[in-house]
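Please complete every field before forwarding. Incomplete forms are returned to the sender.

SECTION A: IDENTIFIERS
Entry label: holo-517
Bound molecule: adenosine-5'-diphosphate
Molecule representation: SMILES string

SECTION B: INPUTS
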Amino acid sequence: MSADITMRLINVVTDGCSNIGLDPCTAAGRVHKDGIIVNAIGILDGNGYKDKAVNEIEGIARSGGGVSDIVKMNELGKTLTSATMGSVANTLTEVVDKELREVLRKGLDGIHPELRFQVVDFIEKLTDEVNLRVVVVIDASGSMANKMNEAKRGVIELLKSLKGRKGDSNIALVCYPSERNEPYLLRDFTSDIDELERLIVKIAPGGGTPTAAAIEFAARLLEEKPLAYEYMV
Amino acid sequence: MPGQRVKGLWSGSTYTVIRQLGQGGVGAAYLVSKDDRLYCLKVSDDMISLTWEYRFIKSKGKFFLPEVYEIDDFVLNNKSKHYIILEYIEGKNLSEVIKARPVDLNTAISIVLLVTEIFIEFFKMGYIYTDLKPENLMLDLKNSALRLIDLGSLVKIGGMVREYTPVYDRAFWNCGLRRADEGYAAFEIMMFTANLLTSIDSDILYKQDVEILLKRLSGCTSQGLYGLMERAFKGQADLSDIRDGLISIHRFQYIPYAGKIDFCINVSLIMSIIFLISVIIYGL
Ligand SMILES: Nc1ncnc2c1ncn2[C@@H]1O[C@H](COP(=O)(O)OP(=O)(O)O)[C@@H](O)[C@H]1O
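SECTION C: PREDICTED COMPLEX
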């Protein structure tokens, strides 16, 4: 029965310097209201993280009900995976906690720590078995140029990790900006690593950073609404 | 923060923080005291992983794991946190040890053989440990033994690999799926061995190609070990192949004590661990 739940997530990979359109945190908050989790992973240049960039990345995840992290070189895939699975576990924990409160009038923290393992086992099982639909949103603006290889490898790593789960995992890829500074769909939902690998090398960075529009674009994809922007490869 | 007190909400136990031991993926570990005894207190927001670790050690306790005594909640700055109380292992992390002094081939084989025995124990229980790395192994100076800390990465056979370190990870090297099976564990053990024997620099890492790595390794290891690595990297070795292979190339005579890994396995193995430990203590 548990295998029939599907969770919808957006993972934004960015350097956090959105400069076109709305505030991405507002967009993430709006999307989260529709039951979508938004995680944000920052790829920043080595030392001296820019406060503004970090604030934006943390803000997106906070409004989007997800997890944020700033990655070190070579670790994007790992971080994307733990953010994805961490946000799934958090959300499932919240749901279970709410159920418990309704049925038992006390949440997880009202159960003796020694006895929580049964609930924990249940959450772990669900985490492994839920179906996931994940849109990875890749910031390919000019400032990301020297981090694109890392970003591409990271996305492939994420898919490799998710494939180890019992539940189905499908990933779609949204990039931004296009030549008209808009987000575009690189690949609709798939679980084919090879195909994603082939497509992902085609991303060419350059242009502005409309992060909010990209988050909304990804949400439309998850909601299976007609896409407001162009479809291009 | 040294001197700070941590009071369990359910048990009422109070621990005094002495110092931080380390920071890990899910939280931090502190040396604490209660009634003149020392413990390791692990704090985290992640109730799931702490509950899991507590439960696992409690029900399956093994000598190579720290003992676990308590799980509880406490309040820090108005926020609810969780902790578990573990046995404090007096000793050194393997990563500190190898940084100070590279291990020779025979010591490396001893360590890996012990790790393999531990992995076989886990496998028999139906689990795979997916985050083998020097940081997660402690040389216990009091008991002269190799102990494993941080069970965050333990998963049921066939499950998803949640925690891993790219250098030791099969999927990272394009040698198979990131799924917790016996081949994953075998790969991880031999990649760990490779790391003990040579530094895998960023150049090799970036290529993610085991063939290049194997070429590099052929210069700094014995024929037997090289063959074992090659088989593990290609998914042609299971855990008992690795154990048997390691035993056959180990310089000491090896007398397996069936099912008695809980007290280390073998005198000669213990000897080489003791040697390593005495090197650490006396800087021989
Ligand atoms: N039982 C213990 N005894 C002594 N030191 C410990 C113990 N457990 C952890 N440590 C130290 O704390 C560090 C972090 O602990 P770890 O278990 O890896 O945390 P996490 O589960 O958050 O990753 C370790 O690298 C080790 O040095």
